[in-house]
Design a protein that fits this description.
Mean pLDDT: 86
Number of helices: 3
Largest sheet: 2 strands, antiparallel
Order of helices and strands: HHHEEEE
Low-confidence stretches: none
Structural class: alpha+beta
Strand content: 5-15%
Strand order of the largest sheet: 1-4
Shape: globular
């Protein structure tokens, strides 16, 4: 399956050729969008660099946290962070807002 094609399906992604990162931030993500978005592909022919990219993400996040004071945003409450029972633990609000302040 070619990810370039599936991620440009106009039935799942309105205006698929436009750069709209906010389409993932609005909370209006359909199941079809989730299924068709495959940044590393799927299956035995998935991206060879996926593990390297994930390692770089972890290293970048750790570097960011070491260079900043991190605190919870006011909207992150005990209630919003209660865990849902999934294969992976997720907070009920599906987000954990943080504030980063340069040290």
């Amino acid at each position: 399956m070619q990810c370039y094609t599936t991620q440009r399906d106009p039935t799942a992604f309105p205006d698929p050729e436009a750069w709209k990162p906010d389409r993932w931030l609005t909370g209006k993500i359909s199941n079809e969008m989730k299924e068709l978005f495959m940044p590393f592909s799927k299956g035995p022919r998935a991206c060879l660099g996926k593990n390297m990219a994930m390692m770089e993400l972890k290293l970048s996040t750790a570097t960011l946290v070491l260079q900043a004071k991190v605190k919870l945003a006011p909207e992150t409450t005990d209630e919003s962070m209660e865990m849902e029972d999934h294969f992976l633990a997720l907070p009920k609000s599906h987000k954990c807002n943080l504030i980063f302040e340069r040290i």
